[in-house]
Design brief:
The protein has a domain of 94 residues. 38% of the residues lie in helices and 13% in strands. It has five helices and five strands, in the order ααβαβαβββα. The protein is elongated, with a radius of gyration of 16 Å.
Length: 145
Amino acid sequence: MTLQKYLDPSNAIDIIEKVKTLRTIGEIKLLAEEFFPGWYVSTAKEYSKDYPSLTENWKLICNSIKTTQAQILLVDEVYFDDEHSIIRMISECFTRAGFSVRKKNDYTECSNCGSIIPSVELWRIFKEKGFKVPITWSSDCVSCF
């Protein structure tokens, strides 16, 4: 059995009510850091141009919720079950603000330009599903070699 992080604490209802009163994404970030230290890992400006479907998907989501693309937010874990309702709510706030919320273990940053690149495991999945991806996986963008 894997230990799950970021479970709702006993005062989850109070925290959810507090989230509802927050007005900026900065306030949401501070709340996340207060109650779930280590969850928020880093941000990046863009996905690698080697993976255009990631950028296209992000743009589609932003257009559908009538917001603009902000940044890619790498977090420790993403959960969608009822035991993680606060993390789910915080993730939703970031998404509605134009962030693309992704698990840090599924992505890496190009060491040259800082663009986000899928892990080798995700690269394999994308390749199998016929998405446009580089012929071989690399932790750096093709144009940065």
